[in-house]
Amino acid sequence: MNNYKVSVIIPSYNTEKYVEETFESIKNQTFNFEDLEIIFIDDKSTDGSVDILKGYEDEYDNVFVYTSPEGKKGPGISRNFGITKATADYVIFLDADDVMFPEYVERVYAEITENGVDLVKSSYCVDVGEFTFPVTQDLGRVEVSPDDFTVLMDFNYLEPWATIYRREYLIEENIRFIEKFNIHESFLFAVETIAKAKNGIIILDDFQCQIWRIRDDGLHNRTLTEQDLEYTMHCISEMLLMVANENQPLSCIRKLTDFILSLWSFDLVTSKEPMEIINGFTFATGFKIDPESISDAFS
């Protein structure tokens, strides 16, 4: 039996145009490729992506391809299923259309194993098609005490990606993605993993580990419904309760509240043209983006 060090869980839905680049970025990690357990969960794709994934599974002993559970669909469901299949001590979530920078796994694995924290979060880049830009607060490396997670209540830390988790922590605390809906379930998961991290968290804000791609045909670019609004309200109440129940200071609750106010605004701007996305991103999150820093050449 292989003793993998890191499980990379990758939900995939109609990613034929992107998944080869994603897989190459995993293969090109400075971390030993054979120490990675690569778990793809196909969410009942209708394009040729499944054939590509099956090809990887046939070629590499450490690649495993599953189909999301019968009668269920959505990235949260696929990620939960991936957690049940993972065997490594540490877990990373990656979307099948995103790209890892070469030192991603090596850097975060060293931090989490050497410091014994529950998770390590890094900064990342956002690809909106015409432009790619970094998201950072210029904090450098920060060791965050479980007594006060205020610094983490910002957009660029409240996502499940760009993070390595101790798998046993997720299991012990029974932390999973909510499966009822596909809007903001990732934020809810991220807040819960932060709020319950009794062993602390490390931020590598000066280290951009991956590119998050906003696709024209992705979940972020869909027409919002009244049900989406209902689910957003549910997420808001759950996130506030999680932070309050862990006795976080008022500053943490206030900062989370500011973030929550941005959620609906961000939903509304992600279907705009690239520069409008950037302007809306700045409005929604408070991060000012220098146009000179925007580049399509992060590679």
Structure description:
This protein has one domain (6-216): Spore Coat Polysaccharide Biosynthesis Protein SpsA, Chain A, CATH 3.90.550.10. The longest helix is centred in the C-terminal third of the chain and has 20 residues, at 226-245. Strand 6 (119-127) and strand 7 (132-135) form a beta hairpin. The protein has helices spanning 19-27, 49-59, 75-85, 104-115, 167-172, 185-195, 226-245, 250-269, 274-285, and strands at 6-12, 36-42, 63-67, 90-93, 99-100, 119-127, 132-135, 141-144, 163-166, 201-213. The radius of gyration is 18 Å and the shape is globular. It has 299 residues and is α/β, with parallel strands linked by helices. Mean pLDDT is 84; it is low at 268-274 and 280-299. Helix 6 (185-195) runs parallel beside helix 7.
